[in-house]
Amino acid sequence: MLQLRCAAQNYEWGKRAEDSEVAKLARANGSEVDDAKPFAELW
């Protein structure tokens, strides 16, 4: 089994990092999260 390493996508219609489940999942995956950007998708 291979572990997936997903990238967070930042789109204007996304949520701010502190309110975003995508940002939380990205952090849990070891990705750096820019709190100033909105997060919309994780793929």
Q: What is the strand and helix layout of this fold?
A:
Layout: E1 8-9, E2 15-16, H1 21-28, E3 38-39, E4 41-42
Antiparallel strand pairs: 1-4, 2-3
Could you tell me how far the N terminus lies from the C terminus, measured between alpha carbons in angstroms?
18 Å
Radius of gyration: 10 Å
Average of per-residue pLDDT values: 93
H/E element string?
A: EEHEE
Strand order of the largest sheet: 1-4
What is the makeup of the main sheet? 2 strands, antiparallel
Helix content: 10-25%
Alpha-beta classification: alpha+beta
Query: How many DSSP-defined strands?
Result: 4
Number of spatially distinct domains: 1
Strand content range: 15-25%
CA-based shape: elongated
Which regions are unreliable across 5 or more consecutive residues at pLDDT < 50? Answer: none
Number of helices: 1
Protein name: Phosphomannose isomerase type I catalytic domain-containing protein
GO molecular function: mannose-6-phosphate isomerase activity; zinc ion binding
InterPro entries: Mannose-6-P_Isomerase (IPR016305), PMI_typeI_cat (IPR046457), RmlC-like_jellyroll (IPR014710), RmlC_Cupin_sf (IPR011051)
